Amino acid sequence: MSNIEIVNLWKVFGNDPEIVFEPENINKTRSEIQDEFNQVVALRNVNLSINPGETFVVMGLSGSGKSTLVRALIRLIDPTSGSILINNQDVLQYNNQELENFRRHTVAMVFQHFGLFPHRTVLENAAYGLEVQKVDTEARNQKALEVLELVGLSGWESSYPSELSGGMQQRVGIARALAVEPDILLMDEPFSGLDPLIRRQMRIELKKLQQTIQKTIVFITHDLDEAITVGDRIAIMRDGEVTQLGTPEEIVTNPANSFVEEFTFDIPKTRVTSVSNIMVKPSSQEFDRRYVVAPESIVEDMIPLVLETGDPIPVVDSKDELVGVVPQEKILELVAQSARQEYSEE
Predict the structure, then answer these.
(1) Torsion angle of alpha carbons 35, 36, 41, 45, nearest 10°?
(2) Beta strands 107-110 and 89-90: pairing type?
(3) Is 38 a domain residue?
(4) How much is the average pLDDT of 82-104?
(5) Is the domain of 89 the same as that of 157?
(6) What digits encode the pLDDT tens for the residues 79-91?
(7) Residue 254 — φ and ψ, nearest 5°?
(8) Using CA atoms, how far apart are residues 313 and 311, in angstroms rounded to an integer?
């Protein structure tokens, strides 16, 4: 069962949004509607299913509708029509009390600009959501200490935000969201305000953190490299619509149109191709256990093994049984393709 189901979701900004849904207008483009009626279609018939424990990335350029979508999930923006089902309950039907409980207990949001209180310590900032829930001081501080350790900030509890780097401040924001133990974590371009090096580190740290917390994460970004690093699946948006939905491998190796193809051009196939898609049937069941990889391993991570051994690399499943081998030439072929791609860009 999916944690989040988005069904036929529309958001039209303007003083007469219903005109968009009239039969003669429903198929008009965003620019036509804006020119003719001065209405802006921010979301157009969006349908998405997001699974429990999945890091689901919504990606697009400015104006694509990605931030409108994530804000609609928590009803910071009310959609014009459609449904948002979370655990089979339509969030759009919540009354004020139900919405408040939903925001306090089910979902938490991490913003781009951290949103920390400068006059509160790191511990107090991390515990703020629990304070709003009226959890007693001792219990909320204990929980805040636990999540600060989880995000690598043990020892910084008494510091103030001004004493932290940008990356550390964002960790506090993540800790504050995790402290209330939400089912769903919404992250709206959380790393875009950071320096490039810190941003790359935060992506890797989030990936590792997710292996521990196993939350349903909806992650908004305009950066495909970021999307591929953190995401289990990616929805690429354009003009309020989802133009392609798939795994990083599906998006990069089989772009749906020229727009997605241009987006993915700089991503080497070695970064997204999984072993399961290039392995072949083993000729025998004997293999060197020093070099085994899993079917979900990425080709890029196997390159050091290729340099170390010239033999086919064995692939084993969760039961440690041999399910295939990857010939060295298959990996070298993908490496050569990526090198040609980089050369053509220069």
Answers:
(1) -130
(2) unpaired
(3) no
(4) 94
(5) yes
(6) 999 999 998 999 9
(7) -140, 65
(8) 6
Which residues are 283's β-sheet partners? none
Nearest Cα residue to 129 out of 169, 164, 181: 181
What is the span of the domain harbouring residue 307? 271-345
Q: Are 111 and 256 in contact (CB under 8 A)?
A: no
Question: 87: which strand partners?
Answer: none
Max CA separation in the chain (angstroms) = 70
pLDDT at 147 over 90: yes
The two structure tokens encoding residue 218: 């909806």
Greater pLDDT, 314 or 82: 82
Rounded Cα–Cα distance for residues 318 and 130 (Å) = 39
| CA atoms of 305 and 72, how far apart (whole Å) | 46
For residues 282-308, give the mean pLDDT: 82
Sign of CA dihedral 107, 110, 114, 120: positive
The more confident residue out of 55 and 266 is 55
Please give the average per-residue pLDDT across 17-26, as a whole number.
96
**Total number of domains constituting the chain:** 2
Q: Measured between alpha carbons, how far is 115 from 110 in angstroms, rounded to an integer? A: 8
Calculated CA dihedral for residues 152, 155, 156, 158, nearest 10 degrees? 150
243 and 317 in one domain? no
Pairing, β 4-13 against β 81-86: antiparallel
* Mean pLDDT along residues 158-184: 93
Rounded to 10 deg, the angle between the 137-150 and 166-179 helix axes is: 130
- Residue 190, helix vs strand vs coil: coil
Residue 305: what pLDDT? 80
Instruction: Supply the pLDDT for residue 1.
Output: 46
270, 286, 321 - which closes a domain: 270
CA 9 – CA 45 distance, rounded (Å): 5
Radius of gyration in angstroms for the set of CA atoms belonging to the chain, rounded to a whole number: 23
The pair of three-digit structure tokens given for residue 16, joined into one six-digit string: 């007469």
Output the CA–CA distances (angstroms, integers) from residue 270 to 95, 137, 258, 275, 323, in the order listed.
49, 50, 21, 10, 21
Number of Cβ within 10 Å of residue 314's Cβ equals: 21
